[in-house]
Amino acid sequence: MTTELESCLKTVSADIRMILERSLEGHEVTVMDGALLSEARGTDLHALCLVADELRRRQAGDRVTYVVNRNINFTNVCIKNCKFCAFARTIRSEQGYFLPHEEIARRVRQAWDMGATEVCLQAGLSPNLTGDSYIDLCRVVKEAAPDIHIHAFSPEEVKFGASLKRVSFKDYLVLLMNAGLGSLPGTSAEILNDQLRKIIAPTRISTAEWVDVITSAHELGIPTTSTMMFGHVESVEDRMGHMDLLRRIQRGTGGFTEFVPLSFVHEEAPLFVKGKVSGVRPGPTGDDVLRLYAIARLMLGHDIPNLQASWVKEGLRTSQLLLSSGVNDLGGTLMNESISTAAGARHGQLMTPATLRRVIRDAGRNPVERNTCYRIVREFGPTADRDPIEPLDAVQDSDAVFGSYEALTLDARFHYEPRGLRVVG
After folding, report:
1. Nearest to 144 by CA among 184, 192, 112, 100
2. Residue 425 to residue 422: CA distance in whole angstroms
3. Is this model's pTM higher than 0.90 or not?
4. How far apart are CA 211 and CA 87, in angstroms?
5. Which helix (H) or strand (E) holds 360?
6. For 68-77, how does the pLDDT look when each residue is reduced to its tens digit (9 = 90+)?
7. 380-399 tens-digit pLDDT
8. pLDDT given at position 425
9. Confidence class of residue 88 from pLDDT cuts 50, 70 and 90?
10. Going by C-beta distance under 8 Å and a sequence separation of 6 or more, which residues neighbour residue 285?
């Protein structure tokens, strides 16, 4: 424990100090403890962040990791009507798009040539999809770049594909795995509380179904990430309950590779813009983000040691601050980012490896390139003197090289053409 931390703990309010000290001793932070820590302000918040940083050092070390990857959101047409989503378009929208296999393959090859080790596939639930569509997509990716890792299909998409294929979640996951799937993004979680889900996304996958998909994947040896969207209408107790559920799943399966808190981006989100739900906040405040990440380290770090900051949601400056509040990973280079951008995120769609390394070093930490499953690809020294020259670092205009979401919605080559409506609840 550092002298600064020891000194700071002496000035903290008694209840919070007890939780922080017990956490440093290895005791579990309960849901009630987490709720109390959510009241931390001023010196209490500073102490919370220092404790999170100390636990990060013990649990994950001083390395900060990132992955070179590309997002491919292959369609924005969706049968769902989630109130927080500004990405999706209806089947009648002039902005609907659907990427053909040859375009997806081109993007995969381009990513591989740029040094990517992972491609992430997520999209809307289009009526044009069949039970074989996700399976075929995996094969397309593997044919384009046999050694790239496929990180794809949220639990919502797995449910959709399994329903169309008329098989169980586990059987569908086996089909995906046999076609090349490497891991699942643990998205479509939002807040794992069905009462809240009925407010923000009434047709969304249920908590029990989400858990079923995730645990089925873990049982098959398919790792997943875990996420939580916060800063909208949820309570502190909702947040803590969500993280406690993730912790219990992890203790049973060990299949989560990381936890990624995702700030609600409100600018274009129907939940906020259209005012259909009362009490919607315009995303979390800066201190709220610091508190949530620090509490996540205390609650989850023993079981899920990798805590990722989303630079797309938080921006690079806040993400760098979070490196002192429990974070040990800065996510991926992305190359394309459509979902947060559509909701109003303003931090771009590409972060070059050189930029990530600069930010990590400036925070006094050691940059490491990892793969999807947190195996080390390359370690880098304290200076950039011997860093390799990478294709991605030369990209000046990511929209020109990789294309933007706006351009995609206007590209006549990829305009969505319905092939018969099939709605699955």
Report:
1. 112
2. 10
3. yes
4. 25
5. helix 353-362
6. 999 999 999 9
7. 999 998 898 899 999 988 88
8. 38
9. confident
10. none
| Separation CA 346–CA 215 (nearest Å) | 34
Helix (H) or strand (E) holding 376: strand 376-379
Query: Which residues partner with 412 through β-bridges?
Result: none
**Alpha-carbon dihedral sign for residues 116, 178, 126, 313:** negative
Closest CA to 343 of 229, 239, 425: 229
**CA–CA separation, 349 vs 312, rounded Å?**
7
Task: Please answer whether residues 370 and 67 qualify as being in contact, where contact means their C-beta atoms are separated by less than 8 angstroms.
Answer: yes
Nearest CA to 386 out of 357, 364, 365, 363 is that of 357
Looking at 3.30.9.10, 3.40.50.2300, 3.40.50.1820, 3.20.20.70, the CATH number of the domain 62-414 comes to 3.20.20.70
Residue type at 12 in one-letter notation: V
| E-assigned strand segments in 147-238 | 149-152, 181-183, 224-230
What local confidence, expressed as pLDDT, does residue 369 receive? 98
What is the C-alpha separation between 31 and 44, in angstroms, rounded?
18
Q: Which residues of 79-106 are buried (b: 16+ CB within 10 A; e: fewer)?
A: bbebbbbbbbbeeeeebbbbbeeebbbe
What gap in Å lies between CA 339 and CA 420, rounded to an integer?
25
User: Is beta strand 224-230 parallel, antiparallel or unpaired with respect to 256-263?
Assistant: parallel
Distance CA 132, CA 164 (A): 8
If you write DSSP's letter for every residue of 251-273 in order, what string do you get?
Answer: HHH--EEEEEEEE---TT-HHHH
- Amino acid of residue 316: L
For the chain, which residues make up each domain, given as ranges? Answer: 3-55, 62-414
DSSP code of residue 112: H
**Band of residue 421 on the pLDDT scale cut at 50, 70, 90:** very low
CA–CA distance, 214 with 53 (Å, rounded to integer) = 29
Calculate mean pLDDT across residues 325-329: 98
Task: Find where tokens 């659907």 sit.
Answer: 98
How many whole angstroms separate alpha carbon 425 and alpha carbon 416? 22
